[in-house]
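Quick one: examine this chain and its backbone structure tokens and tell me how the chain folds. Here goes:
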Amino acid sequence: MPRKPKDQKLPAEVIAAVVADFPVDDGKNRAAQWLGQRGGKARAKALSPERRKEIAKKAAKRRWSSA
């Protein structure tokens, strides 16, 4: 942890501000993430409520199956 002279700790808000200046690189392409979000929203908007229900049931069945 960064320290001031005489081993005094820095206030938490100063440390938080320093950490916030360095974004974490998670290895993902930001443009691809944005496009993926747009595609998901467009697909959800295009699906009928019945089709969304079928997809949700299928996903729940697979999620809770033993496999």
Observations:
- The chain has three helices and no strands.
- The mean pLDDT is 79.
